[in-house]
Amino acid sequence: MPETLFSIYQATLTFSIAAIALLASPGPATLALAASGAAYGMKRSIQFFAGITVGLIIAMALVATGLYVFIHNFPLLGVVLAGVSILYILYLAYTIAAAPPINDEQATISPGLGAGFVLGVANIKAYAAFAALLGSFTLGVTSTWELFTKASICLLICVVFDFFWLLAGSKLRKLFIHPTWSRILNVSFAALMVVTVVWSFLLKPEI
User: How far apart are CA 115 and CA 45, in angstroms?
Assistant: First the structure.
């Protein structure tokens, strides 16, 4: 029994480390949160953060239930969905790049709950990560608890590290008060979003 528990703990730790590597690394959602924090501040980006979290839950559910595999059985539909998601992320990157320089008294429109939800659902990197994590690791518990445990770990890591990315962006905001440097920061984050979404699309799993 102790050996069995040790193997479960070891497998869970290994899974958690892999989940951090895949879900907490730079990607369209994490960089969008950092960019939103830098461009609009923490307070104005909380709803965006909440929307991304809900969207990621939906994405994980699609992978866990096999609907993601079902969608990929129809290549044309998969191409259309991928195209829509890429166009939306590019649009979001443009709005962040075009955000006005920092001015706490200026009423700027920041990405909200809906924008975050769409980004979470359309996050190609997240689908690839969830497919790899939920399908390639075994914790050694019953099938029901296996899926629940892995999904819970993934969700916790997404929430915690996405919040850290948002916080980091908001801290950078205070270092780039000058309008010119503020613009450079926003454009840099937007460019990184474009690079990561292209990279994520090229690495998406063929399932």
Answer: 11
Q: How far apart are CA 71 and CA 53, in angstroms?
A: 22
Within 8 A by CB and 6+ apart from 5, the residues are: none
Percent helix, strand and coil across the chain, each to the nearest 5: 80, 0, 20
- Among 65-79, 87-101, 119-133, the range with the most confident prediction by mean pLDDT is 119-133
Structure tokens at 94: 């443009």
Residue 47: the pLDDT is 93
Which whole-number Å values give the CA distances from 43 to 2, 77, 127, 196, in the listed order?
Answer: 47, 37, 28, 25
Distance CA 91, CA 75 (A): 24
Give the count of beta carbons closer than 10 Å to the beta carbon of residue 94: 13
Q: In which band, very low, low, confident or very high, does the pLDDT at 79 lie, cut at 50, 70 and 90?
A: confident
Q: Across residues 129-139, what is the average pLDDT?
A: 83
Residues 6+ apart with CB under 8 A from 63: 127, 130, 131, 134, 135
pTM of the complete model: 0.79
